[in-house]
Design a protein that fits this description.
Number of domains: 2
Strand content: 15-25%
CATH class of the largest domain: Alpha Beta
Number of helices: 14
CATH architecture of the largest domain: 3-Layer(aba) Sandwich
Length: 345
């Protein structure tokens, strides 16, 4: 099978296919974001779509402000997720398999991969529409034992969330610096976001429109758009765009405990204690984080791991000397670990 131009561009021994998939789950979403989404699929060297071999699939979820293009982009001295997969297969660090990169972006920069009237049904987009397309298009092991999910940051949160809330879809997850322990990771951003919104008349829509019109955004503005995206995922008030409950008072910045309780209902470090049955059926529960993570997500990983172990379940938990940025090299650890528990075709 000839290598495509994408495969040549990335220097792959295997190949990369780019699809555009209609997702019924995203039809009519609040922000009017496209329901047709890119889906990139890495295939290993020697891939024969008409042969008898069936392939396991690792599904990759990008982080906040990311998308499919960002994960397959090239940069000097960097190795992207597809190049890591190709290297690991070539070096026989893992068996030949497929890697599917799913798009979960939206107008606010990310969906958290949850189903929400405030942003769209992105969990269903992943577990039904994207997976359904891959299984219909490629010779996959189209069952729980043939699928794993991995992501970084918001994608790591998505991997944990989907594995715990959609049992039977994946047999393993890996979370790199994934969102957890919201009390430690998110609360520090509330006052900063309140100050940003105050400059725009405390109007989320006005802020977003001004944000979109800029050529360059400040760090505070980037954090504010992310927090609004989280509110659309965790605490929407209705199906209208920007109609969200924020976890702080817009006038004073004071915490709104009732709203934050709705956020905590998505926090993996909180919800895991009620998901023993779902976690138990997984073959691998993997978390890591840098010890200098700017959002203290290393604490979240520690809390999650301890609570899972308290249930009598195994968890692979690792820490490394780095912060939250450019930690894609951790795929060299997680991919082989996931591949070892996936079924062979």
């Amino acid at each position: 099978m000839a290598t495509t131009d994408l495969g040549r561009l990335l220097g792959l021994a295997g190949d990369l296919h780019l699809h555009f998939v209609d997702s019924p789950a995203l039809h009519g979403n609040a922000f009017g974001d496209p329901a047709t989404r890119p889906l990139a699929v890495y295939v290993p060297p020697g891939f024969d779509p008409g042969g008898s071999k069936r392939y396991a699939v690792i599904y990759v979820l990008h982080g906040y402000t990311g998308d499919v293009g960002a994960l397959v982009a090239t940069a000097p001295w960097e190795t992207n997720v597809v190049q890591w997969a190709d290297r690991l297969v070539r070096e026989r660090a893992m068996p030949p398999l497929l890697v599917a990169i799913v798009d979960g972006n939206n107008r606010l920069g990310g969906s958290q991969y949850v189903d929400s009237i405030g942003s769209g049904d992105y969990a269903t987009h992943v577990v039904r529409d994207a997976i359904g397309y891959v299984d219909a298009t490629y010779p996959t092991i189209a069952e729980e034992g043939g699928r794993a999910v991995v992501g970084k940051s918001s994608g790591g949160f998505g991997a944990m969330h989907l594995a715990m809330t959609h049992p039977g879809v994946f047999c393993a997850f890996a979370s790199h610096s994934g969102d957890a322990n919201f009390r430690g990771a998110y609360v520090g951003e509330f006052a900063r976001t309140q100050r940003v919104l105050e400059k725009h008349g405390r109007d989320a829509r006005a802020f977003v429109e001004a944000f979109e019109a800029k050529h360059k955004r400040s760090t505070d503005e980037m954090h504010a758009i992310m927090l609004l995206g989280q509110a659309a995922a965790y605490s929407p008030r209705s199906a209208a765009a920007f109609d969200v409950d924020l976890p702080f008072d817009l006038a004073t910045g004071a915490m709104r405990e009732d709203v934050f309780a709705r956020w905590l209902a998505f926090d993996p470090a909180e919800t895991c204690v009620d998901r023993k049955a779902e976690l138990q059926r997984l073959r691998l529960r993997y978390l890591d984080c840098g010890r200098r993570d700017e959002y203290a997500l290393d604490v979240g990983a520690r809390v999650f791991a301890e609570r899972v172990r308290d249930m009598g379940l195994g968890v692979r938990h690792e820490e490394f000397d780095d912060d939250h940025r450019k930690v894609g090299y951790r795929y060299a650890v997680s991919f082989p670990a996931l591949a070892r528990v996936l079924e062979a075709g």
